[in-house]
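Try this one yourself first.
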């Protein structure tokens, strides 16, 4: 009986591991095919059955990207995404701090507007936003692509909730008694305690801005201002579509997001390790 009791949970444990491995392989399958197709030419990609292992055309596919606006588009995406992420962190942290710490007229309305901004699908705001930036003369300028990322309802609510729950009011009052002004409260106390929330928001904003397609397509029509996903879409229609080059470009396009996720994971682990040591 004791052996059966032990074998039952152990069998379930290995079954759970096998299920997780299978699920992980299934999730990695699109990335594997992206790597395989990026190393084959277009003719090989459309063979039946399709290739299952990497080929020898990756260098040639990378070379074909030089004849397209891909590399400049990659730089454009990095610029738009980094500026939008930095602005989003600054605006969200400042606004969230104000909504969490202070009490003023219209506060609930601002929170409601932030919630409403989260409920609206992005495609519903693209056309009104285009008319607005057209009146400002921002069409075909990078600011038209990164300014929407600067104002994030989700980011404001995330920072507000984190500050309200993670920073005691008594700590802020004690800092005021010690001579800290409001700006010092934000910079020296709130920001250091908000590192996990800031890291999370940075990852969300970076990936969302990097993967944005419709907004840059509308507000940045010139090829020299293409972002990477718009450039990849343009490559699909050029000369019948060099799918090997498109796949190679798509493979390179996911590298920045992987780097950001790796850096954020290190930040999360260090924060969790610090919290664990603090609890002990």
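Now uncover the answer:
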């Amino acid at each position: 009986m004791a052996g059966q009791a032990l074998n039952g949970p152990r069998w379930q444990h290995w079954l759970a591991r096998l299920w997780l491995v299978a699920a992980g392989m299934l999730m990695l399958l699109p990335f594997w095919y992206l790597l395989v197709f990026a190393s084959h030419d277009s003719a090989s990609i459309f063979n039946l059955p399709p290739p299952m292992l990497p080929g020898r055309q990756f260098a040639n596919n990378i070379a074909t990207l030089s004849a397209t606006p891909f590399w400049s588009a990659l730089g454009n995406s990095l610029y738009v995404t980094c500026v939008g992420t930095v602005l989003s962190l600054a605006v969200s942290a400042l606004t969230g701090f104000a909504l969490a710490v202070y009490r003023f007229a219209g506060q609930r309305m601002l929170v409601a507007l932030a919630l409403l901004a989260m409920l609206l699908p992005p495609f519903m705001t693209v056309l009104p936003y285009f008319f607005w930036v057209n009146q400002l003369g921002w069409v075909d300028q990078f600011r038209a692509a990164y300014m929407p990322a600067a104002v994030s309802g989700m980011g404001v609510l995330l920072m507000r909730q984190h500050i309200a729950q993670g920073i005691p009011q008594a700590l802020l009052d004690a800092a005021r008694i010690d001579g800290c002004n409001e700006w010092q409260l934000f910079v020296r106390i709130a920001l250091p305690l908000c590192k996990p929330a800031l890291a999370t928001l940075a990852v969300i904003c970076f990936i969302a801005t990097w993967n944005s397609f419709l907004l840059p397509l509308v507000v940045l029509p010139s090829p020299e201002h293409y972002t990477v996903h718009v450039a990849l879409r343009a490559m699909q229609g050029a000369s019948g579509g060099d799918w090997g080059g498109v796949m190679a470009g798509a493979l390179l396009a996911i590298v920045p997001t992987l780097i950001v996720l790796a850096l954020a994971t290190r930040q999360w682990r260090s924060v969790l390790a610090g919290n664990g040591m603090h609890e002990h």
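Discussion: The chain has a mean pLDDT of 86. The two ends are 39 Å apart (CA to CA).
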